[in-house]
Amino acid sequence: MPAIKKTRPAKANNPVKRKTSLPPEPATAEEDPPIDLTPPANTDDTVSTAEVLEHVPCPYCDEDMEVMVHPADDGKTRYESCSVCCRTVAMHIIWDDGQVELSADRC
Question: Fewer CB under 10 Å: which end of the chain, C or N?
Fold first, then answer.
């Protein structure tokens, strides 16, 4: 039995098409002014509604714990694990005039 020879179709001689970028447009005198991204100054006595990163010592191992608290947590108790000793800590959160009071107790 003669061996069957597989052949590939011949490639067409197509030139390679490359994308070219257009030159940048010249700047005009009427460009938009830069956008100011700084937040407005807090001129009144409103309470902040942003989350705050607080530090409190663990009641078991006395290592510093970082806790993100939000004004919506006012009056609540959250339970978190210490990242060092892995024990559960009760976090009591109180917001008073935009300031947070955070205490950590053993469970």
Answer: N
